[in-house]
Amino acid sequence: MAEECVPEDLDLKGMGEEELWELINDNRHRISLGVRPCILIPYLRQARVLSEMDEDEILSCHNLTNRCMRTSHMLDLLRTQGKNGGMALLESLMIHYPALYTQVTGRKPSTEPSRFSGLIKYSELTEYLVRAVTGMQKELQEARNEASKLRAHCASLEADISQMMEQEMKSRTLRTDNERIQRHLCSLQREVTKLKDEKCDLYIRYTAAIEEKSAVNGRLHELNLQKVRSYLLLLLHQARQDILAQDLAEAIDSQVELAEQLRSYREENEQLLRDKKKVCLFWFFSFSGYSNQIRKCHTNSTSYL
């Protein structure tokens, strides 16, 4: 660190140009990062180590795209002014950046005229210091106002952060719930996929069952046709048997009637035969008696003759 390397009683006025700029260059990076050129340029202009053209070049050059580059270019311009440029730079740091001045030189800042190099007349230096103090007081007040605004803004940000943290907790809970729901959804999707696969298998088996049922129905239809055909043949055979039985019954009835008629005819015939015999006997006996009478008559006639 520079404050550790530079002794406390270091006399900057007694340092040579090279030694002074070696001290500055050792802290060049720190100065480039911590200094705004627009703050130091008014003192450097009044100390006549920078011109108006130098100021325009530092603040307006398009090649210097950031504050560090502008500060580094300002150091290069001051280096061309030799020891006066280095002393004016350190004095401007002592006025406007006292903490950085201590880090670079290892000395405490002071506004005593004896601590300045005399590049600016005492009256001008006093006037500048008054303006600088007034400006710093104004800047301090602005900084305080800005700090107050920043505190209010910080309080608002803290409230926002608290609200955001609460929302983050809710979001984390929602993310946890969402992850759980997503896992459950994935599980359900796997179940749906499994059910779809099972449905496809069932559909395949159902199609096979329908085809098998259709084949069975075809075979059953053929069997039913065969059964119907057999049943019709059986009915036809039964009808034939019934017809034959009926014909047989009718034939038997006819035969019985014929037998009755035949018996009746036989009885009539027998009666006729008996009657005929009676008639024949009657006629026979009648004729026999008549013959006997004739013979008697003949005999008598013969005898008479």
Automatic annotation (TrEMBL):
A single GO molecular function term of this UniProt record: CARD domain binding
Coiled-coil regions listed: 133-167, 248-275
Entry keyword set: Coiled coil, Phosphoprotein
Domain of life: Eukaryota
Any one annotated GO CC term: cytoplasm
Keyword Phosphoprotein assigned: yes
Annotated InterPro entries: CARD, DEATH-like_dom_sf
UniProt name for this protein: Caspase recruitment domain family member 14
Organism, scientific name: Maylandia zebra (zebra mbuna)
The organism's taxonomic lineage, starting at the top: Eukaryota, Metazoa, Chordata, Craniata, Vertebrata
